[in-house]
Automatic annotation (TrEMBL):
Signal peptide, first to last residue: 1-24
Gene for this chain: Dmel\CG33723
Species of provenance: Drosophila melanogaster
Pfam entry (one): DUF1091
InterPro entries reported in the protein's UniProt record: DUF1091 (IPR010512)
UniProt xrefs under PANTHER family: DAEDALUS ON 3-RELATED, DAEDALUS ON 3-RELATED-RELATED
Record keywords: Signal
SMART domains: DM8
Lineage, broadest ranks: Eukaryota, Metazoa, Ecdysozoa, Arthropoda, Hexapoda
Protein name listed in UniProt: Uncharacterized protein
Length: 180
């Protein structure tokens, strides 16, 4: 009896050492930025950069031509690919100026903002008097959020954001990722 328990325990430990932990991974597949009103705001950078097979990052820069920005509204939606991209879980519009003052009041927006906040100059509330920069958001950061903080099922996703600044529709950003 003791021998079978010991054998079972040793077998289980060996199995745990041999089998690797399976972790979902994120890969950026595309990034699209479109300026709607170039007199007001224009994307001067919208890049997806692949350093090697495992390290990719995205960067965007928006030049704001009519400052200051005192009102900002953002609509963001998460879409999953099911024979085309279909809405998945979230589609929300929020007052960004209010959000920056009261982030805990909107946990869904905070979840997405936390992915970029340390890589951006979006670190204060309105008014904004300078260009908006999001620089080098890596797949590692996004992977941590979509696998450890709030796990998502495998698949192809698109996060789409629509921006209204000072009540003027300015642009659209679409970030495409694959979770496998």
């Amino acid at each position: 009896m003791m021998y079978t328990k010991l054998t079972l325990l040793v077998s289980l430990l060996l199995l745990m050492l041999i089998v690797k932990e399976i972790k979902p991974r994120v890969e950026f597949t595309n990034l699209k930025c479109r300026s709607v009103n170039k007199d007001f705001a224009e994307f001067t950078q919208c890049t997806l950069k692949s350093i090697n097979r495992t390290y990719k990052y995205i960067s965007t820069k928006v030049s704001l031509h009519k400052l200051p920005i005192t009102k900002a509204r953002v609509n963001f939606g998460l879409y999953k690919r099911f024979n085309g991209y279909r809405p998945f879980l979230y589609n929300k519009t929020l007052d960004a100026c209010h959000f920056f003052q009261h982030q805990k009041a909107n946990p869904v927006a905070k979840y997405f903002f936390d992915m970029i906040k340390e890589y951006s100059n979006l670190n204060h509330s309105c008014p904004y008097n300078n260009d908006i920069i999001v620089e080098k958001v890596s797949t590692d950061t996004v992977n941590h959020h979509v696998t450890k903080i709030l796990p998502y099922p495998e698949g192809d996703y698109m996060l789409e954001t629509h921006w209204m600044l000072n009540d003027i529709y300015c642009g659209v950003i679409q970030v495409y990722i694959t979770l496998f």
